[in-house]
From TrEMBL:
<dbReference type="InterPro" id="IPR029016">
    <property type="entry name" value="GAF-like_dom_sf"/>
</dbReference>
<dbReference type="InterPro" id="IPR003018">
    <property type="entry name" value="GAF"/>
</dbReference>
<dbReference type="Pfam" id="PF01590">
    <property type="entry name" value="GAF"/>
</dbReference>
<dbReference type="InterPro" id="IPR013515">
    <property type="entry name" value="Phytochrome_cen-reg"/>
</dbReference>
<dbReference type="InterPro" id="IPR005467">
    <property type="entry name" value="His_kinase_dom"/>
</dbReference>
<feature type="domain" description="Histidine kinase">
    <location>
        <begin position="528"/>
        <end position="751"/>
    </location>
</feature>
<dbReference type="InterPro" id="IPR001294">
    <property type="entry name" value="Phytochrome"/>
</dbReference>
<dbReference type="GO" id="GO:0009584">
    <property type="term" value="P:detection of visible light"/>
</dbReference>
<dbReference type="InterPro" id="IPR036890">
    <property type="entry name" value="HATPase_C_sf"/>
</dbReference>
<keyword id="KW-0808">Transferase</keyword>
<dbReference type="InterPro" id="IPR003594">
    <property type="entry name" value="HATPase_dom"/>
</dbReference>
<dbReference type="InterPro" id="IPR013654">
    <property type="entry name" value="PAS_2"/>
</dbReference>
<comment type="similarity">
    <text>In the N-terminal section; belongs to the phytochrome family.</text>
</comment>
<protein>
    <recommendedName>
        <fullName>histidine kinase</fullName>
        <ecNumber>2.7.13.3</ecNumber>
    </recommendedName>
</protein>
<feature type="domain" description="Phytochrome chromophore attachment site">
    <location>
        <begin position="146"/>
        <end position="303"/>
    </location>
</feature>
<keyword id="KW-0600">Photoreceptor protein</keyword>
<dbReference type="GO" id="GO:0000155">
    <property type="term" value="F:phosphorelay sensor kinase activity"/>
</dbReference>
Amino acid sequence: MKIRDIVNRDIVNLTNCEHEPIHIPGQIQPHGFLLGITLQWKIDFCSENVSDYFAISHTQMLGKDFAEVFGAGAQDEILAYTNGDEFRDAFPLEIELLGKLFQINIHKSNDIYVLEAELLFADREKLADAYKQTIQFVSQMNKTKSLKDLCALVAQGTREITGYDRVMIYRFDEQYNGEVFAEDCREDLEPFLGLHYPHTDIPAQARELYIRNQLRLIVDIDYKPVPIYTVDDKEGKNLDLSLSILRSTSPIHVEYLKNIGVGATLTISLIHRDRLWGLIACHHYSEKNISPEIRLAAKLQGQFITSQIDIRQSNDEYGNAQHTVLALEQLTSLDLPIVKESLEKISTAPQLLEIANASGVSIVSGNKIYKNGLTPTDDQILSLIEEIHNKKITEIFSTNKISDHFPELAEKVDFAGIIYHALGNNGHILWYRPETISEISWGGDPEKSIIIDNNGLHPRNSFNIWKQIVKNQSNPWKQYEINAAAQYAHTLHNQLILIMLSEEEEKYRNQSEILREANSELENINWISTHDLQEPLRKIQLITSKTLSELDGITTESISNSLERVSKSASRMSVLLEDILKYTRIKNTRDTLQKVNLDEILEATIKEMNETIAESNAVIESEKLPEVHAIQFLMRQLFANILQNSLKYASSDRIPKIKITASQEPVMIHHLYKVYCYWIRFSDNGIGFEPQYAESIFKIFTRLHRQEQYTGSGIGLALCKKIMQTVGGDIHAEGKPGEGVDIVIYFPCDPEDTLLPL
C-alpha cells in the first residue's frame, strides 16, 4: 500500500495570491491530530503527529478499520455522537482513546468524516463559570442602546472570558475594508481603535471560510505545520478542511501576524444577513489555547452582536429616521392646488431637503427646472439626466460617489452624491450632497499590503499609521433616506399626473369658453349689424331725403342742422365700426407675453386722457403697481377703457374719484378654478350698478342705460374682458348702486415668480 502526504505546495505569486487554496493546505496545527474516515469506517487520512499521542504511527493507521485501531466501543460512541446533530456544533465529544481523554470535533467533508482530536483540558474552566459570565454580560448588554456601545461591551466581555491580551471588534465596509470598531486591550499595549485595514488583509477566499467556519484558533504562531497523509489510491486525492478547527493557516497570514508581534489568535465570525459583517479578533502576545467551554462562550458573544445589529443600528438612526418620517408626512400633507405653480412651493419646502438629509434638490417637469438649496446649474442637471438615461437607468439611482459612474461629469460639478427618481412624462427629481473630505487612518499603507522580494511574497511589515485623505464622495445615503425619497417621488409622480389631467381639463374648459364667447360674439355682431349700425344709417337716409325734398324752401340754418345730425350719426357709426375692429383683432393667445411695468402703463394712459380727466375734475390716486407678464399695447387699451368707463358713469353730485390698489408681491389667488398671482383694483365713486349685472356688463354691446343717457357702443368692458383672456388673466366687477364700482383684474403667475405659502 502506497502512502503519500497531501500538502499543497503550489507556488503563490502576485497574480494568484488572492486565490490561494487555503481550504486544502494538507496540513494542521500540532495541538491536536486529525483522522479522515470513510463511510465504511476506514482510516483514509491521518496526520503525521498521531505518534505523539499513541504508540502507533500514521503509516500503521492508514487503511485500517477504525475499530481495529481504537476499539468498537469508541466507534459506537462516535456513531451516536454524529447522530445527535443538535449537540455536535455546540459541544465536542469527550472520549477516551487508547487510555487518553480527548475532545473531538467532527464534521463531514464530502464523503469523509473528519475527526479532530485535542487532549482534554486538565484545568479547563467549568461550563457554569462561563454561563455565569454570559448571564452577567446579557444584563449589561440590555443597558446599552447604540451598536458601538454594544460592541465595546462585547470586546470587554470577550477579553474577560477568554483572557486574550487584545480583543477587537472588526467591522467591514461594502468593499470589505476593515475598521477597528471597538477594542479592549492591556493598558500597556498601543490601541488599534479606529484604524482601518485594506480588504487585501483578509482576501476573498479567507472571508468565505470565515462564513463557513465561524471560529478559528491559532494556538502558537510559531507552530510547525503537521502534514496529512493518505492512501495513494487515486490521482489528485485531497481533503477539504474548510470546517476544520486544526487547519493550518496560510504562511502569508502567519507572517502578517508575526509582523505585528502576535503569538496566538482567536477569530469569531460576525455574520449578518448571510454576509460577513465583521470579526471578533482576539490577539495574545504569547502561546495560548482555550477550552471548548470558553470557545463556546466567546462564540456566543459574537452571536449577541449579530442578533442586535439591526436593532442597534435602528436605535442609532432612530432620531434621524424620525425626523425624515416627520418631514415626509409634512410634505405629503401640504394642501396644494393641482397646477404647475404648486411645484414651486414643493421645491422650496424645507421638508423636501429634510426627507433625504440633502443639501440640494431639483425637480424637472417639462421645460421647467425647480431648484432649492445647493444645486448644479440647469445645464449640468440636464447633462446628468442624459448620462443617467445613457446608462439605461429608467427609474431609481443613488450613489455617494458620482465619479465612479460619471467621471467626466464629476469633474465639472460641485456635488458627489445623488438620489435620482424618474417621474414619468419627462419628469425627474434629484437630491444632491456635496463632497465630504475625510481622513482615514490606515494601519500601514493599504497600497503595500503585499510586497515581493527575492525570497517571494510577504505581507507588509510596517504597521505605522498611514493617513489618507478621501475626496470625491459624499456622506453615504442611509437606507431610510433612500426609502423616504422613493416614497415622495411616487407621491410627486401622482401629483404631476393630476396636474397634467387638470391642464388638459383647463385647456378643454378654455376652448369651450372661447367657443362659447365666439358664438356669443357672432350673435351680438350680427345683432349690432342689423340694429346699431342700421339705426344711424336710417337717420342719415331720412335726413338727406327730407332735405332733398325741401330744397326749394329750406333755410340755410335748417340745412346746417341736418348736416350736423348726419355728421353725428356717421361719427357714431365710425366709432362703432372702430370698436368692432379693435375687438375682433384681439386673439386668445399668450405667445407674445412679456414683462410689462404697469406703473409706466398707467402714467402713459393718464397723460393721454389728461384733457378728459381735467374736464371732469376727476381725482386719480394710485399706489405702486407690479410688473406682470402681459402685452404692452393691450394694457394701455385696458387701463384707458376702465378709466373712461369710470369717468363716463361718474355721479353728478360729487367729484369723480378713482383709487387704484394692487398686490405688491406674488400670492396664489384661487378664482373660478384658476390660480393667479397678482391683482389690481380700480375703485370709483360713480353711479354703480345692481349686483345681478356683475357678469353681463362684460358682454359685447351690453348696456345698462339708454343711449340717450350715456353714449358709447357697449364694447368697452367686453374689450377689457377679452384683453384679460388674451394674457391668461381674468376680470370681474363689484357694484353698489349710488356708491360706485370696483373693477378687479387678475394676472397669471410669471415663470420666475416665487410663490408664498398658501
